[in-house]
Specification:
Oligomer: single chain
Number of strands: 14
Largest sheet: 5 strands, mixed
Strand content: 5-15%
Bound molecules: beta-D-galactopyranose
CATH class of the largest domain: Alpha Beta
């Protein structure tokens, strides 16, 4: 344990032993990238929950899905010696900051509230470092979803696709009906989000070998060539203005009937709900065809930075406690589109897509088919992720002769990044 972590640990201990968190807590300054309509609505649930416990909120939003811009802003704040109290963070980024000794310690709160028994182990792998709790998980999202306009689906025959071939047939039918078949925003993290689903559709063993184990043979082999050919095929269904478009504007294209579907994590559902749309009636949620039973997850966690001041450390502990509260987990995730980061939260308040998300997660976990999302920092550290992003985006934009050339480039890029 580093000095900073020790300090956080000691203060957190003092907190449970000596004083009440809420009574002593300062405001929390929170760095996050939840700036879309659906995200802001979910964030409000958190703000209001903390306000009801007497914890004030200082907002530090840094727009940009996937959080890359937020992570750049964070680095600047830490370099300046002034880290925010709490930071929205994903997967390997949490571990990297912990390894730098920058994070505080939530062990006392975790022990008092029994987090070990209720937070899924797949999440604990990122919430704990060296056996100590360093982040509070607020949700579980997953990336292998497709959000389809019900009207566009009905106009194209009404059957949700279950295989790659059926997906392509549906996209063709939507094209023939005069709409943009696939709503997409050309940003590297969005291209990578689609790629998560495409790779998983070629098999769970393949996803694991290529994107988790980073096996050079899987990264550069025939199945990867096929994955890139599928990605290149999907590119033919997007509109001319896709480049640089934000993900929530792509969701809006499906919501307003301009486009047939979006391949995106379940934060997209937050946008549909915010627009008053109802699952099953206005839109349909399916797993990326060919990935039924498997889940590529990402979990938003709030990492607490090692900071001076007992009142600030008390506020961190109080915020972490509020985040893990089962009632809050239900209320927040119903709005966010994600599912709870605890295994003991009832599904009653969730809509059909949320109930499916919870059931899929449990099933995938039981069957060894739950994997970290490459696109959202749960498969490999940032350096490798960025190398993957570069090749995926170049492939999406037609910069390789074919899928095989892209696969070769992918294997080389990952080798160089390690
Ligand atoms: C993800 C994050 C989600 C979501 C999305 C788009 O990385 O985990 O909570 O909001 O980015 O901003």
């Amino acid at each position: 344990m580093t000095k900073t972590m020790m300090k956080g640990f000691a203060s957190a201990l003092a907190l449970t032993v000596g004083m009440s968190a809420a009574a002593q807590a300062a405001d929390v300054e929170v760095l996050h990238w939840w700036t879309s309509g659906g995200e802001a609505a979910a964030l409000n649930v958190l703000k209001e929950d903390l306000a009801s416990k007497g914890i004030g909120w200082v907002d530090m939003p840094v727009a940009g899905g996937g959080g890359e811009a937020a992570m750049t802003a964070l680095r600047a704040r830490v370099t300046a010696g002034d880290p925010p109290t709490a930071v929205q963070m994903l997967g390997f980024d949490i571990q990297d900051w912990a390894a730098e000794g920058a994070l505080g310690n939530l062990d006392a709160t975790a022990a008092a509230e029994g987090w070990d028994a209720v937070v899924p182990t797949a999440l604990q792998a990122f919430s704990k470092y060296d056996g100590h709790w360093i982040a509070a998980p607020v949700n579980v999202h997953s990336t292998n979803w497709v959000w389809i306009s019900k009207a566009a689906l009905d106009a194209a025959g009404g059957k949700a696709p279950e295989t790659w071939e059926e997906l392509v047939a549906l996209l063709d039918a939507m094209k023939a009906n005069g709409i943009t078949p696939l709503a997409h925003g050309g940003q590297p993290w969005q291209d990578a989000t689609v790629f998560d689903g495409v790779v998983l559709s070629l098999g769970t063993d393949f996803y694991k070998a290529a994107l988790i184990d980073l096996d050079p043979a899987a990264l550069g082999g025939e199945q990867m060539a096929e994955a890139f050919n599928r990605l290149i095929k999907l590119r033919s269904y997007v509109d001319d203005n896709f480049s640089g478009r934000d993900w929530n504007l792509a969701s809006a294209m499906v919501i307003n009937g301009e486009a047939g579907m979006q391949m995106m994590g379940d934060w997209a559902k937050g946008e549909f709900l915010k627009a008053g749309k109802v699952p099953g009636t206005d839109f349909v949620c399916i797993r990326f065809p060919g990935t039924q039973g498997a889940v590529t997850f990402n979990s938003d966690q709030f990492a607490m930075f090692g900071i001076e001041g007992e009142d600030k450390v008390a506020a961190q502990a109080a915020m972490a406690s509020a985040i893990l509260n089962p009632t809050f987990q239900s209320a927040f995730n119903v709005v966010k589109g994600s599912v709870p980061a605890r295994t003991d939260v009832p599904n009653d308040a969730f809509d059909d897509c949320g109930k499916k998300g919870m059931a899929d997660l449990a099933e995938a976990n039981t069957n060894g088919k739950l994997f970290g999302s490459m696109a959202h920092g749960h498969a490999a550290p940032a350096a490798v992720k960025n190398a993957l992003y570069d090749v995926v985006t170049a492939a999406f934009n037609g910069e390789y002769a074919d899928g095989a050339a892209a696969a070769t480039a992918l294997a080389e890029a990952v080798a160089a990044a390690q």
